[in-house]
Amino acid sequence: FSMKDELLARLLRAGGEPISGQQLANDFGVSRTAIWKHIQVLQEEGYILETVKKKGYVLKSAPDRMDAARIQTHLETERIGQVIHHFGSVDSTQILAHGFVRDGAADGTVVIAEEQTAGRGRMLRPWESTAGKGVWMTVILKPDIPPHQAPQFTLVAAVSIVNAMKALYPELEPEIKWPNDILLNGRKCTGILTEMVAEADRIQALLIGIGINVNQKIEDFPQELHTIATSISAELGREVDRAEFVAKVLYYLESYGDQYVKNGFSPIKALWEKASATIGRHVRATTLREVIEGVAVGITEAGVLEIKTASGEVKGVYSADIELC
Ligand code: BTX
């Protein structure tokens, strides 16, 4: 971790008590001036720090940011999030994550940004990623499963996010729209984009891209999203701590991801169906080849959506846009 992160972690742990510059300098093996420089960087980022004479630095207040040290104070995982690369503004965490994978990133590495200027959804659609308001992250996983089992990780991620929302904000009733949307009161607040780097028979890495609208007001979204998008805070009526929320998402992602790899898809499938807004509904599925209308009857062990058409035929859909009719 960077020295800035270590310093921030120390200040957070001190819980409002001063820490002396000399002490920090000794512990990090650097000069007091070096410490002072990092304190200045934190101040520029919005952390309010006070210098108490003869005693040292005190952290008075922290802005809503997702610095590694902030997420890690809440983290309950063994692997996911042990390495976090946090950025201010990037084009897309997904693009950066591919670079980290090429450089041999460890299983569980998280790439997270305050803002994305070229966030993307499926089929290269744009993903709106307002600065400082959402969770824009890519989690790099290296599960020991064959490539054909990778798509189910989108559903594992969806179940994880739903459970993180329910654990922290029990007032919310998140629902999953197959395969990768999470809705609050019928509006989209989350998108998931799973990409894979693989050889013929083994996964080298999964890149689970997660975009969650957290603290936006409806006016913060561009006009075309006003009627279809929402955020956690718009539904709750208050702002929330994004770092705490990210830690909870990572916790469930590790626990359900491990469960999937160990015990197969059945337990996840049950959780998914419980949170589903799709099953039992009349849907219109637009795939690259055709439009299928009917009642969504369930998902298979492979995560495929099954739709029963008017003629009684059950069709499996691997990838599509779903409209709930
Ligand atoms: P998707 O293709 O299902 O959804 C994209 C569509 O959703 C857009 O065409 C637009 O209509 C709508 N949309 C765009 N932005 C938002 C938003 N903020 N809230 C609600 N609706 C929106 C979903 O693709 C997958 C999104 C993954 C995003 C993450 S963020 C971290 C990572 N980096 C990156 O570039 N992508 C992923």
UniProtKB/TrEMBL annotation:
Belongs to the biotin--protein ligase family. This is Bifunctional ligase/repressor BirA. One of its GO terms (cellular component) is cytoplasm. SUPFAM superfamilies: C-terminal domain of transcriptional repressors, Class II aaRS and biotin synthetases, Winged helix' DNA-binding domain. Acts both as a biotin--[acetyl-CoA-carboxylase] ligase and a repressor. It holds the Pfam family BPL_C. Residues 69-261 form the BPL/LPL catalytic domain. Residues 21-40 bind DNA. GO terms for molecular function: ATP binding; biotin--[biotin carboxyl-carrier protein] ligase activity; DNA binding; transferase activity. Gene3D superfamilies: 2.30.30.100, Bira Bifunctional Protein, Domain 2, Winged helix-like DNA-binding domain superfamily/Winged helix DNA-binding domain. InterPro entries: aa-tRNA-synth_II/BPL/LPL, Bifunct_BirA, Biotin_CoA_COase_ligase, BPL_C, BPL_LPL_catalytic, HTH_11, Transcriptional_repressor_C, WH-like_DNA-bd_sf. Biotin binds at Q116, R120, G121, R122, K188. It is an enzyme of class 6 (ligase). It comes from Lysinibacillus odysseyi 34hs-1 = NBRC 100172. The lineage of its organism: Bacteria, Bacillati, Bacillota, Bacilli, Bacillales. One of its GO terms (biological process) is regulation of DNA-templated transcription. Its EC number is 6.3.4.15. PANTHER family: BIOTIN PROTEIN LIGASE, BIOTIN--PROTEIN LIGASE. It catalyses: biotin + L-lysyl-[protein] + ATP = N(6)-biotinyl-L-lysyl-[protein] + AMP + diphosphate + H(+). CDD domains: BPL (cd16442). PROSITE patterns: BPL_LPL_CATALYTIC. Keywords: ATP-binding, Biotin, DNA-binding, Ligase, Nucleotide-binding, Repressor, Transcription, Transcription regulation.
